[in-house]
Amino acid sequence: MTTVADRSPLTDRVHTLWQPVPGYLNAATLGLPPRAVVSALQEALGKWQSGQASAVEYGQLAETARAQYAELVGVPTGTVAIGSQTSVLVGTVAASVPDGAEILCVTGDFTSVTYPFMVQAHRGVTVRHVPLSALAAEIRPSTHLVAFSLAQSSTGELADVAAVTAAAAAHGVLTLCDLTQAAGWMPVDAGAFDLTVCAGYKWLCQPRGTAYLTVRLEVAEAIVPNNAGWYAGASVWDSVYGPDMTLAGDARRFDVSPAWLCWLGAAAAGEVFAGLDLAQVRDHDVRLANLLRDRIGAEPCARPVVCLEDPDGTRADRLQAAGVVCATRAERVRLAFHLWNTEDDVDLVSTAIA
Asked: Which of 212, 90, 151 lies closest to 334 in space, CA to CA?
């Protein structure tokens, strides 16, 4: 059992913000909604049912979520676009790279980062896949853009951001970084990259259907807003009918019209995360992951995801039988520790796989 001495500075506070779910170690797949998100969505459903829903109010909440995310990742609000899925936002970037461009990606990266570039092959766009450890060294003058995840989906392994961005700068190469498996558990600086994408439904605990694109202003003009609709207009409610088109002058021109209730939930989750110290969140999550690593004789590291080899599924079966909710990826069990987890979860896992 978790004792007072075992608690991190976040434990008591988090259990007022989230409803504890013992054994839930799957934030890397689907984050748990804070209590405030559930309450906001329940209230919104009632308003919708009674005819009190307002599209204007939904839009205001989407703008709130945009501003909250900008603050979280350290960039101006005007550099943030919103959409539904990371693949859609990466697709906008991919559709804008020049014919014949060379794109550098990581072998085994999440395909929402790679497929949008690979389907541009008909324009002569080529994609090179290299190991994460070799990413910086493989950047060369012929590379147009390097696209990679800050934390790998399958293992949680972190990219060497300093090395990658230095190599990209040295060769005049654009950087696109997927923050999905990093933002929410660790401090992130989106301004270190030309472009970033992030899905909100994992570590940020937002409803599925929220995603973010950040665009450094110096590169924005080279990207075509190929999903432009009324929400990309300079004045949203004056952009619902043509034939005139005046797009937003900032990153809003890349917006995808928001799924209203998803963004209502995003604003509620964003308020919760705005009140958290992400350095403390990182320390809490990583501490628990390293406690498990110590129990199983693995080396400690600075990430909250623990992967266990499981080629025949035996470990996954044991964990499921013990009440652990986790994921299986690439013949491994993936255990992701986040805010709501405690040492009781470490005990549960270590007993199940002993």
From this structure: 151
What is d(CA 54, CA 260) in angstroms, rounded to the nearest whole number? 10
Beginning with the edge strand found earlier in the chain, give each strand of the sheet holding 102-106 in spatial order: 80-83, 211-215, 195-199, 174-178, 143-149, 102-106, 126-130
- Whole-model pTM? 0.95
- 8 Å CB contact between 74 and 212: no
> Are 203 and 295 in contact, with CB atoms under 8 Å apart?
no
Amino acid in position 342:
T
Residue range 4-34+277-352 in CATH 3.40.50.1110:
no
Angle formed at CA 341 by CA 340 and CA 347, multiple of 5 degrees:
160
Q: What are 149-170's pLDDT values in tens digits?
A: 999 999 999 999 999 999 999 9
- How many CA atoms, within 13 angstroms, populate the side-chain half-sphere of residue 350? 16
Low-confidence ranges of the chain (pLDDT < 70): 1-9
Q: Tell me the domain boundaries of the chain.
A: 4-34+277-352, 55-274
Residue 12, number of CB atoms within 10 A of its CB: 10
Give the pLDDT score at 5: 47
Read off the pLDDT of residues 318-335 as tens digits, 9 standing for 90 and up.
999 999 999 998 899 999
55-274 in CATH: which number? 3.40.640.10
Q: Which two tokens stand for residue 16?
A: 């007022």
